[in-house]
Amino acid sequence: MTYSLANILTLSRIAAIPAVSVLLYVQGPVGAWSAWAVYAIACATDWLDGYVARNWGQDSEFGKFLDPIADKLLVAAVLLLLVAQNRIDGWAVISALVILCREIMVSGLREFLAKTAISVPVSRLAKWKTGIQMVALGVCIVGPFGPWGMPWVLIGEIGLGIAALLTLVTGWDYLRSGLKHMTREEAAAPTPSKPVGSVG
Asked: Where would you find the membrane-spanning parts of this chain (predicted)?
């Protein structure tokens, strides 16, 4: 299989996960900023691979399949590591849990609808959610080592809270759209006839 530049960019986002994971365990500002740099580059590929696919004619079914998986793997890995290291704690853990649960739910919904040849397009609000979520996680990675003496930990947690609220809204939109397609399919399905002599 030949990989296009867009596919390579998407795969690089997955390849960045172990690097970010290792760097998050390096103590002090060097580890925090190094992890942030790799994470920021990985997030940039999320926009870049889509741009390349659209404008260079590299749109493919493999890319459509892999892109959301790469996003979810990166977000899930960073969230779990930040919680494990207590860089995200208290009420912010609930935000992380909401985000993770929504990603699992949407993935399952997309998988089910793919069997019926129905796609669920990404809404503009969902794109805003993704952007805020990525920025908030980047702030949480830097944490207390951020510049200008600002309360970066609190800012990151507030960002995660906003992302979690948008996650609930967009998750409900996806679920409602999916349920609509499911009920439509059930209504259109023919009712099996009873065999002669059956009781019921």
From this structure: 7-27, 130-146, 152-175
